Amino acid sequence: MRIVALDENSKKDILADLLKRDPNNYTAYSDTVQEIVDTVKRDRDAAVFSYTEQFDHAVIDASTIRVTKEEIEEAMREVEPGLLEVMKRSMKNIRAFHEKQKTYSWFDSKPDGTILGQKITALSSVGVYVPGGKAAYPSSVLMNIIPAEVAGVEKIVMVTPPGRDGKVNPVTLTAAHLAGATEVYKVGGAQAIAALAFGTESIPRVNKIVGPGNIFVALAKKAVYGHVSIDSIAGPSEILVLADESANPRFVAADLLSQAEHDELASAILVTTSMDLAKKVSEEAKQFTKELSRSEIIQKSLDNYGYILVADSMADALETVNEIAPEHLEIVTKNPFEDMTRVKNAGAIFIGEYSSEPLGDYFAGPNHVLPTNGTAKFFSPLNVDDFVKKSSIIYYSKDALEAIHEDIEAFAEAEQLTAHANSVRVRFEK
């Protein structure tokens, strides 16, 4: 991994480099995605079936697109019992964490005759996109469905690409069933997003779409936003490790590569105050890369977006962390909890040398759907609030309104909205 002395110029260059990975920059695909979205909106099922055959090489129709109870039972029999138990334990942790996020309606009644409040209502339907084909991502299934289920969403519709045999990966399907998906459809890509946004003869329209996917899925979500709500436009994965001389270089290198193996566009960055640690981590990363199964992807990721930044002080290092606003942040320093208090921007923060990033991906409980590409400056991890909406409640008695009606009228007239003022004034005409 390249070692760079951290200063204002190098920081600006790296930030500009990282922003190149933003899905919003991939405009070359936008027209293709928009055409798919428009065609599905117009031709509905026919377009979905055609695109599925074209892109996934699977033949489906109205009688086979929805996963049946028998297919779920078959899938669960195929999953190795040990993995099934691991998924159940992971689910328990995820559900327990998200249960603590629930908010409730509240009402504040005062003696002056006013009642103000907030009513919490779960979304009635949510679509969950899960990548598919040969790969299986049961952790993504759990992380997207469980918060919706905890929030009280009645209809949770999952879509995922089928294999060439027209079937859903059994591990993915088992996770969906355990987590609480109410319906599963065999469709992926931009066509799946369009189907969820507008509805087809077979696939119901939903209120919100969540879940990760490739660039076509990301751009399709962007294209349908406004017709439905979405979680975010997710970019490639990233990890930043903040470390000092006390860190174990072998642990740090292993953690950096855990994200580099995702994608050639993934980012792995170490920010440290120790040149000695920087050199050791670089060497450990080199050795690990030779041994790991996805070494080619890892090497390209490190060549493109891997950095070891050496800062003069922990204050400079923390400033850089907040500028990058990483998806995953590990703090491996002498005083990690103290340093954590100075972090303003990060999707998930892992504290100490035994809290490696995969702990959050699979098991600890906090959601692994996180803001990327610096959006941790204003976005949060996927959570229960993403699956509810809030309505304000306002009640004033006659006496309560009479006491302040002239204030409202004056405000409205200052904005030259005389009908607003009149709406209040007529209630107190003599």
From TrEMBL:
EC class name: oxidoreductase
Residues that, per the record, bind NAD(+): Y129, Q191, N214
Cofactor, free-text remark: Binds 1 zinc ion per subunit.
Pathway the protein acts in: Amino-acid biosynthesis; L-histidine biosynthesis; L-histidine from 5-phospho-alpha-D-ribose 1-diphosphate: step 9/9
Residues reported in the UniProt entry to bind substrate: S237, Q259, H262, H328, D361, E415, H420
Keyword match NAD: yes
List of catalytic residues: E327, H328
Keyword Signal attributed: no
Cofactors demanded by this protein: Zn(2+)
InterPro entries (UniProt xref): Ald_DH/histidinol_DH, Histidinol_DH_CS, Histidinol_DH_monofunct, Hstdl_DH
Keywords assigned: Amino-acid biosynthesis, Histidine biosynthesis, Metal-binding, NAD, Oxidoreductase, Zinc
Catalysed reaction, written as an equation: L-histidinol + 2 NAD(+) + H2O = L-histidine + 2 NADH + 3 H(+)
GO biological-process terms attached to the record: L-histidine biosynthetic process
Residues that bind Zn(2+): Q259, H262, D361, H420
Protein family membership: Belongs to the histidinol dehydrogenase family.
The protein's role, per its UniProt record: Catalyzes the sequential NAD-dependent oxidations of L-histidinol to L-histidinaldehyde and then to L-histidine.
Protein name: Histidinol dehydrogenase
Organism field: Hungatella effluvii
Lineage summary: Bacteria, Bacillati, Bacillota, Clostridia, Lachnospirales
Encoding gene (name): hisD
